[in-house]
Design brief:
The chain is of the alpha+beta class. The protein has 3 helices and 5 strands. It folds into 2 domains: 1-40; 41-92, IHF-like DNA-binding proteins (HU Protein, Chain A), CATH 4.10.520. Strands 1-2-5 form a 3-stranded antiparallel β-sheet. The longest helix is centred in the first third of the chain and has 20 residues, at 18-37.
Length: 92
C-alpha cells in the first residue's frame, strides 16, 4: 500500500473527500515526525510507539577494502508495534 492507497482508504472509511483525507494524513505524519525529531515518544494505543533510539559509536569494516573504520554515534527513528498489531499480523 502506498500513500495514495492509504489516502483512498482513509477517505472511504472516514467518509471524507480525498483532499480532506490527504490533509488529515499529512497532519498526522507531520505531527509524528515533528514530535519524534524533538525527542518525544508518540504512542498510538493498539498501533505502536514511535521514538528516537541512540546508536553508540562502533568499529566497522569497509566491505570493499577490508579497512577498519569508526562509525559515528547517531540517533535514528524507531517503531515498536503494539501487541494488538503484532497479533493481527501474526493471525493473517
Amino acid at each position: 500500500m502506498n500513500r495514495k492507497d492509504l489516502v483512498e482508504t482513509v477517505a472511504r472509511e472516514a467518509g471524507l473527500s480525498a483532499a480532506q483525507a490527504e490533509a488529515a494524513l499529512s497532519a498526522v505524519v507531520d505531527g509524528v515526525v515533528g514530535a519524534v525529531a524533538a525527542g518525544e515518544k508518540v504512542t498510538l494505543p493498539g498501533f505502536g510507539t514511535f521514538e528516537q533510539r541512540s546508536r553508540a559509536a562502533r568499529s566497522g569494516r569497509n566491505p570493499q577494502t577490508g579497512e577498519a573504520l569508526e562509525i559515528a554515534a547517531s540517533v535514528a527513528p524507531a517503531f515498536k508495534p503494539a501487541a494488538a498489531f503484532k497479533t493481527a499480523v501474526a493471525n493473517r
